[in-house]
Amino acid sequence: MQLINTIFKKIPKPFKNKYIITIILFVIWILFLDDYNLVNQYKIKKKIETLKLQKSFYESEIKKDSTELYNLKNNPEAQEKFAREKFLMKKDNEDIFIIKDKNE
Predict the structure, then answer these.
(1) 102: in domain
(2) Tell me: the pLDDT tens digits for 27-80?
(3) How many domains does the chain have?
(4) Which of 17, 16, 38, 18 is nearest to 27 (CA)?
(5) Cα–Cα–Cα angle for 97, 98, 100, rounded to 5 degrees
(6) Confidence label for 9 from pLDDT (cuts 50, 70 and 90)
(7) How much is the CA Rg of the chain, to the nearest whole Å?
(8) Residues 30 and 44 in one domain
(9) What is the dihedral of CA 63, 67, 73, 75, to 10 degrees?
(10) CA 47 from chain center: how many Å?
(11) Are residues 44 and 69 in the same domain?
(12) What b/e string do you get for 27-63 counting C-beta neighbours within 10 Å, with b at 16 or more?
């Protein structure tokens, strides 16, 4: 009991007030213990930012691919170019030489 009394006497007077203790506990609860604490909020905000960047990237890729698809459907020269580049197709009287860089 002596130990508890000495510890209690060492505590500053404002921290003995029940309202101050309640406010401190509430702040600790909100900052660290709650499901939507500040640490989780920060992580969620970062994840939202990365998802927005990915969304803009994929929207630009969709736009690029849709224009390429439109050209492939409507332009015979684009079809031939695509077939030659991607599938290494050739005409009967042609020879194809594939040159690759060392980096690839």
Answers:
(1) no
(2) 888 888 888 888 888 999 999 999 999 999 999 999 999 999 999 999 999 998
(3) 2
(4) 38
(5) 145
(6) confident
(7) 34
(8) no
(9) -170
(10) 5
(11) yes
(12) eeeeeeeeeeeeeeeeeeeeeeeeeeeeeeeeeeeee
Q: Are residues 3 and 20 in the same domain?
A: yes
Same domain, yes or no, for 41 and 83? yes
Structural domain containing residue 14: 1-34
User: What is the Cα–Cα distance from 39 to 26, expressed in whole angstroms?
Assistant: 16
Q: Report if residue 29 sits inside a domain.
A: yes
pLDDT value for 5: 82
DSSP-derived letter for residue 96 is: -
Q: What size, in residues, is the chain?
A: 104
Distance between CA atoms of 74 and 70, rounded to whole angstroms?
Answer: 6
Residues 49 and 24 in one domain: no
47 in the same domain as 20: no
Identify whether residues 59 and 86 lie together within a single domain. Answer: yes
User: Would you give the DSSP letter of residue 40?
Assistant: H
Nearest by Cα to 40 from 50, 31, 49: 31
